[in-house]
Amino acid sequence: MIEKEDLRLMNQESYLKNRHLYHIYYNQMSNHNHDHCAFCMKKFDSESQKGYCTLDYYWICENCFEYFKVLFNWKIEKE
Prior knowledge:
- The chain is α+β, with helices and mostly antiparallel strands.
- It has two helices and six strands; from the N terminus they run αβββββαβ.
- Strand 4 (about 50-55) and strand 5 (about 60) form a beta hairpin.
């Protein structure tokens, strides 16, 4: 059950609610040497890591996806 005081929730609903996500391996597309999960801040820095990503490049780790998928009403797109 999701707790209202969950420290991972930081207004992500404003930009991640009802979004379409792709379950893909990480690849660095930004100018940074890594990216972070939008919830728990887990580091994405290896092409062997798999996670969920929006088209505008917000990453969500697999654990946070499982935990928040109902609350955020995400839709998974085929690769």
